[in-house]
Protein backbone atom coordinates (compact mmCIF):
# COMPACT_ATOMS: atom_id res chain seq x y z
CA UNK A 1 0.00 0.00 0.00
CA UNK A 2 2.82 2.45 0.77
CA UNK A 3 3.95 2.35 -2.87
CA UNK A 4 0.46 2.04 -4.35
CA UNK A 5 0.61 -1.58 -5.49
CA UNK A 6 -2.90 -2.86 -5.97
CA UNK A 7 -4.14 -6.27 -4.84
CA UNK A 8 -2.87 -9.02 -7.15
CA UNK A 9 -6.26 -9.95 -8.66
CA UNK A 10 -7.12 -6.42 -9.81
CA UNK A 11 -3.56 -5.70 -10.94
CA UNK A 12 -3.40 -8.96 -12.90
CA UNK A 13 -6.67 -8.01 -14.61
CA UNK A 14 -5.14 -4.62 -15.58
CA UNK A 15 -1.96 -6.33 -16.81
CA UNK A 16 -4.02 -8.70 -18.98
CA UNK A 17 -5.99 -5.78 -20.44
CA UNK A 18 -2.76 -3.94 -21.20
CA UNK A 19 -1.17 -7.04 -22.71
CA UNK A 20 -4.20 -7.69 -24.90
CA UNK A 21 -4.30 -4.07 -26.05
CA UNK A 22 -0.83 -4.07 -27.57
CA UNK A 23 0.78 -6.90 -29.53
CA UNK A 24 4.35 -7.76 -28.66
CA UNK A 25 5.52 -6.80 -32.14
CA UNK A 26 4.05 -3.27 -31.74
CA UNK A 27 5.81 -2.57 -28.45
CA UNK A 28 8.95 -0.49 -27.96
CA UNK A 29 11.86 -2.68 -29.17
CA UNK A 30 13.97 -2.07 -26.06
CA UNK A 31 14.59 -3.54 -22.64
CA UNK A 32 12.83 -1.61 -19.86
CA UNK A 33 13.54 -1.27 -16.16
CA UNK A 34 12.29 1.17 -13.58
CA UNK A 35 13.29 0.97 -9.95
CA UNK A 36 15.44 2.17 -7.10
CA UNK A 37 19.11 1.79 -8.06
CA UNK A 38 20.35 2.91 -4.64
CA UNK A 39 19.50 -0.34 -2.87
CA UNK A 40 22.23 -2.43 -4.51
CA UNK A 41 25.47 -2.07 -6.45
CA UNK A 42 24.21 -4.39 -9.17
CA UNK A 43 21.33 -1.98 -9.85
CA UNK A 44 23.62 1.05 -9.93
CA UNK A 45 25.77 -0.85 -12.40
CA UNK A 46 22.67 -1.56 -14.52
CA UNK A 47 22.22 2.20 -15.04
CA UNK A 48 25.47 2.25 -17.06
CA UNK A 49 23.51 0.35 -19.72
CA UNK A 50 21.13 3.25 -20.30
CA UNK A 51 21.01 5.13 -23.58
CA UNK A 52 23.78 7.73 -23.80
CA UNK A 53 25.50 9.79 -26.48
CA UNK A 54 28.23 7.11 -26.58
CA UNK A 55 26.22 3.86 -26.45
CA UNK A 56 22.83 2.42 -27.16
CA UNK A 57 22.66 -0.86 -25.28
CA UNK A 58 18.97 -1.21 -26.28
CA UNK A 59 17.94 -0.53 -22.69
CA UNK A 60 15.65 2.20 -21.38
CA UNK A 61 16.23 2.52 -17.65
CA UNK A 62 14.48 4.83 -15.19
CA UNK A 63 15.13 5.75 -11.57
CA UNK A 64 12.09 5.42 -9.31
CA UNK A 65 11.98 8.09 -6.59
CA UNK A 66 9.33 6.73 -4.23
CA UNK A 67 9.20 9.87 -2.05
CA UNK A 68 8.55 12.14 -5.03
CA UNK A 69 6.17 9.62 -6.56
CA UNK A 70 4.08 9.41 -3.38
CA UNK A 71 3.80 13.22 -3.31
CA UNK A 72 2.57 13.19 -6.93
CA UNK A 73 -0.03 10.51 -6.31
CA UNK A 74 1.84 7.61 -7.94
CA UNK A 75 0.97 8.87 -11.44
CA UNK A 76 4.22 7.58 -12.99
CA UNK A 77 4.36 4.18 -11.28
CA UNK A 78 1.34 2.29 -12.56
CA UNK A 79 2.66 -1.23 -13.08
CA UNK A 80 0.09 -2.07 -15.76
CA UNK A 81 1.30 0.81 -17.93
CA UNK A 82 4.90 -0.41 -17.79
CA UNK A 83 4.31 -3.29 -20.21
CA UNK A 84 4.88 -1.16 -23.31
CA UNK A 85 8.30 -2.65 -24.13
CA UNK A 86 9.16 -5.96 -25.75
CA UNK A 87 11.65 -6.77 -22.98
CA UNK A 88 11.48 -6.23 -19.24
CA UNK A 89 14.51 -6.48 -16.96
CA UNK A 90 14.36 -8.16 -13.57
CA UNK A 91 17.21 -7.37 -11.20
CA UNK A 92 17.40 -7.89 -7.47
CA UNK A 93 17.83 -5.12 -4.92
CA UNK A 94 18.99 -5.80 -1.36
CA UNK A 95 17.53 -9.24 -1.85
CA UNK A 96 14.71 -10.73 -3.88
CA UNK A 97 12.54 -8.03 -5.43
CA UNK A 98 8.75 -7.92 -5.28
CA UNK A 99 8.74 -6.74 -8.91
CA UNK A 100 9.52 -10.23 -10.18
CA UNK A 101 5.95 -11.46 -10.61
CA UNK A 102 4.83 -8.15 -12.16
CA UNK A 103 7.61 -8.30 -14.72
CA UNK A 104 6.86 -11.93 -15.57
CA UNK A 105 3.16 -11.07 -15.97
CA UNK A 106 3.91 -8.33 -18.51
CA UNK A 107 3.77 -10.61 -21.56
CA UNK A 108 7.18 -9.29 -22.57
CA UNK A 109 10.36 -11.30 -22.78
CA UNK A 110 11.85 -11.22 -19.29
CA UNK A 111 15.56 -10.52 -19.15
CA UNK A 112 16.62 -11.90 -15.79
CA UNK A 113 19.90 -10.67 -14.36
CA UNK A 114 21.49 -13.62 -12.57
CA UNK A 115 19.72 -13.79 -9.19
CA UNK A 116 21.31 -14.73 -5.90
CA UNK A 117 18.05 -14.89 -3.94
CA UNK A 118 15.21 -17.18 -4.99
CA UNK A 119 11.55 -17.12 -4.08
CA UNK A 120 9.43 -20.23 -4.25
CA UNK A 121 8.55 -20.09 -7.96
CA UNK A 122 11.74 -18.81 -9.59
CA UNK A 123 13.41 -22.10 -8.72
CA UNK A 124 11.24 -23.78 -11.37
CA UNK A 125 11.80 -21.29 -14.16
CA UNK A 126 14.12 -22.47 -16.88
CA UNK A 127 16.47 -20.22 -18.87
CA UNK A 128 15.54 -19.73 -22.53
CA UNK A 129 12.17 -21.26 -21.76
CA UNK A 130 10.73 -18.87 -19.18
CA UNK A 131 13.27 -16.05 -19.32
CA UNK A 132 16.43 -14.89 -21.04
CA UNK A 133 19.47 -14.98 -18.68
CA UNK A 134 21.55 -11.81 -18.34
CA UNK A 135 25.10 -12.02 -17.02
CA UNK A 136 25.59 -10.01 -13.83
CA UNK A 137 29.20 -9.14 -14.65
CA UNK A 138 28.59 -7.96 -18.22
CA UNK A 139 25.02 -6.66 -18.15
CA UNK A 140 25.19 -4.10 -20.97
CA UNK A 141 26.56 -6.44 -23.64
CA UNK A 142 24.30 -9.23 -22.44
CA UNK A 143 21.17 -7.02 -22.63
CA UNK A 144 22.14 -5.68 -26.04
CA UNK A 145 22.71 -9.20 -27.37
CA UNK A 146 19.34 -10.42 -26.03
CA UNK A 147 17.41 -7.47 -27.50
CA UNK A 148 19.23 -7.61 -30.83
CA UNK A 149 18.59 -11.35 -31.05
CA UNK A 150 14.92 -10.94 -30.14
CA UNK A 151 14.39 -8.12 -32.60
CA UNK A 152 15.85 -10.19 -35.43
CA UNK A 153 14.03 -13.40 -34.40
CA UNK A 154 10.60 -11.91 -33.67
CA UNK A 155 8.58 -15.04 -34.42
CA UNK A 156 10.66 -17.14 -32.03
CA UNK A 157 10.18 -14.55 -29.30
CA UNK A 158 6.43 -14.35 -29.92
CA UNK A 159 6.23 -18.13 -29.49
CA UNK A 160 8.39 -17.85 -26.38
CA UNK A 161 6.21 -15.12 -24.85
CA UNK A 162 2.97 -16.95 -25.73
CA UNK A 163 4.34 -20.10 -24.09
CA UNK A 164 5.23 -18.34 -20.85
CA UNK A 165 1.99 -16.49 -20.23
CA UNK A 166 -0.92 -17.75 -22.31
CA UNK A 167 -3.46 -15.02 -21.50
TrEMBL record:
Glycosyl transferase CAP10 domain residues: 1-160
PANTHER family: GLYCOSYLTRANSFERASE (PTHR12203:SF80), KDEL LYS-ASP-GLU-LEU CONTAINING - RELATED (PTHR12203)
This protein's name: Glycosyl transferase CAP10 domain-containing protein
Species this protein is from: Citrus sinensis
